[in-house]
Each structure stands twice: as C-alpha cells, then as structure tokens.
C-alpha cells in the first residue's frame, strides 16, 4: 500500500509545532476507524522523520482518526512526557519512533498497561511482547549495499573516516557494523577516524571539519545518514576537497538524491520509511478496531534500496519511481 507523501518543504512546515514538542490536531476524517492516535517522532526538522510523520498523519486521517504529533529529539525524558500525555489523554493508539532501545521500554510498557496499543516504526526497543509491531529498515542489508558500492568508488584503497549517528539509537551501531563487515574485506582501505554527529547536518559539518583538521588527506567518508553526509559535503567543499573525497550517505532524502546526481555523493541507501510507517499505522488500526493483529512476527525488517547516479533522478520524497 504505497502512497505519495507531501514534498519535503511542505512536510517541514506542517511539523513546525512538533519540532518544539507541541501538538497539532486534524479533523476526524470519514473512514471506518475512529478515535485518536498519538504520533511521536524524533526530529520534525529532519526530512526523513518529516516523511514518517506526514505519511502517518495522512493515513490516520484517511482511516478516520484524529491525531496529535510530537517530537522528542532523541531525549528519553521528552519522550516520556509525550507518551504520558498521550496516556493521560486516553488515546486509542500510539505510533512511536523510539528514543533509544533500552530507554523506551518502560514508557511502551506503561502505555500497554493502560490498554493503549503501541506500534513502533524506524527503530526497535530491546524487549518484545509489548509493541504490536516493530517495523524497521533492514539496516545491515542496506549498509552492505552502500559499503560495497562506495568501496568500488574508492578503488578498494585509501583512508577514510566515519560519521556516526545517535549512539542510543540501535540503527547507528547496526549500520556502522554493516559497513565494517564489508570494508574489512579490503585490507587497503583504512579507517583513520570517527566522530559522533547525532544524525544532524550541522553536527556532521562540524565533525567533518574536525576530522579534516586531523586527517587532511583522507580519501573517503562513510556516514550513518544523509544529513551527516550532507554536512560533510559542505565541509569538504569549503576545504576545496570535495572532488577528491568519496562520500556515502544513508536514508534516501531529496537533498541526497541531488548530491548523488551531481556527483557530490557516491550513493545513498533508501530506507522504505513510507512503507514502514504505512504498515505500522495499518497494524495499529487493526488492533484498535478488532482487538488483535494479523501479523505473525512483531519485528518486521524492510529491505533498503541502493540509490546511485543511475537512478537518483527517480527518487523523490523517499519513494523510488519505476
């Protein structure tokens, strides 16, 4: 069930309130569902999470739900506040992009104990049997795709650095390990440095500037997401080294697609966030309506898609056209 989502700029505008932790409400739609869903994401200013929320909002309204939206910024305390608000408001269901695998268990359990079903998207928690579904991208598979293509662009030799995502997010180590499993096969590729940049473009740029000051002659950059990679590209361009350094991203944002198309980035790995969010909302709706879910496995991993110069022009709003 694939739906086109709003353009990135529009999505960010829609979620301005959520970026400050505020809530927004929609009409009750006209579907067969009914009631209220709380949509809790990570960072509304990031195109990836903006796509996640826009998809959830559109489908929730189509199914007949009102909704609130909020963003926790990977802060477990803010996540707790948003979750407890939803619980106190006696919502019918919660869609959550968790702020940490361990940190999110207690608040999910709190919602479930209150009789509110929770569906997780994009990131997992460290326990099963609480959420109705945990739908994530197959990050290991996606990282392997990206790393192999990037290694080829590097001619399987040279020095490189890594920009690492939010440490409490399970996706960060999974992608990093996925990169390592591929790149360790090539002894002439040497990783010389790493910086945590928390999925953020500005932090990516700052971290890249610091890495360049220590390793001015690096040949490549691997990044845990597109925003950090785009920040690295800004730093490399300012340093006059962009044409000499191979950069790898991960997410499949519009800006990354443009960077791949113009040669600034070797590749990005498209996460099927619209498909994952659609499935998560549909499962939540089924549980709200029937009291049960038809899915057999709580954890669902969706394969990622490699985006290179050959298909970058087909990528828009986290959807790859045929």
Automatic annotation (TrEMBL):
InterPro entries in UniProt: Peripla_BP_I (IPR028082), SBP_2_dom (IPR025997)
- Alphabetized UniProt keyword annotations: Signal
Tell me which GO cellular component terms the UniProt record holds: cell envelope
Q: Which residues form the Periplasmic binding protein domain?
A: 37-289
Signal peptide bounds: 1-21
- Per its UniProt record, what Pfam families does this chain match? Peripla_BP_4
**Name the record gives this protein:** D-ribose ABC transporter substrate-binding protein
Task: Give the organism, scientific name.
Answer: Nesterenkonia cremea
Lineage of the source organism?
Bacteria, Bacillati, Actinomycetota, Actinomycetes, Micrococcales
């Amino acid at each position: 069930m694939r739906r086109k989502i709003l353009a990135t700029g529009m999505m960010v505008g829609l979620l301005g309130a959520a970026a400050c932790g505020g809530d927004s409400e929609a009409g009750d739609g006209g579907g067969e569902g009914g009631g209220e869903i709380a949509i809790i994401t990570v960072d509304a200013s990031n195109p990836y999470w903006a796509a996640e929320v826009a998809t959830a909002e559109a489908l929730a309204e189509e199914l007949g739900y009102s909704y609130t939206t909020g963003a926790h910024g990977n802060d477990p305390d803010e996540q707790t506040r948003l979750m407890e608000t939803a619980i106190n408001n006696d919502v019918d269901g919660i869609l959550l992009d968790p702020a940490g695998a361990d940190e999110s268990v207690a608040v999910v359990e709190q919602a479930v104990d209150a009789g509110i079903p929770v569906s997780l998207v994009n990131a997992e928690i460290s326990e099963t049997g609480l959420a109705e579904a945990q739908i994530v991208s197959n990050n290991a598979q996606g990282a392997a795709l990206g790393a192999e293509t990037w290694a080829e662009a590097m001619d399987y030799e040279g020095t490189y650095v890594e920009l690492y995502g939010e440490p409490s997010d399970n996706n960060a180590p999974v992608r990093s390990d996925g990169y390592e499993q591929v790149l360790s096969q090539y002894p002439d590729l040497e990783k010389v440095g790493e910086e945590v940049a928390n999925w953020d473009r500005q932090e990516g740029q700052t971290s890249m500037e610091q890495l360049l000051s220590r390793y001015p002659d690096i040949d490549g950059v691997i990044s845990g997401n597109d925003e950090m990679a785009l920040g690295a590209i800004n730093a490399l361009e300012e340093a006059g080294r962009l044409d000499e350094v191979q950069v790898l991203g991960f997410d499949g944002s519009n800006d990354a697609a443009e960077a791949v198309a113009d040669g600034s980035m070797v590749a990005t790995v498209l996460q099927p966030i619209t498909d994952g969010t659609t499935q998560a909302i549909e499962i939540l709706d089924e549980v709200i309506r029937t009291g049960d879910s038809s899915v057999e496995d709580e954890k669902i991993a969706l394969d990622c898609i490699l985006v290179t110069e050959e298909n970058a022009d087909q990528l828009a709003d986290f959807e790859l056209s045929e």
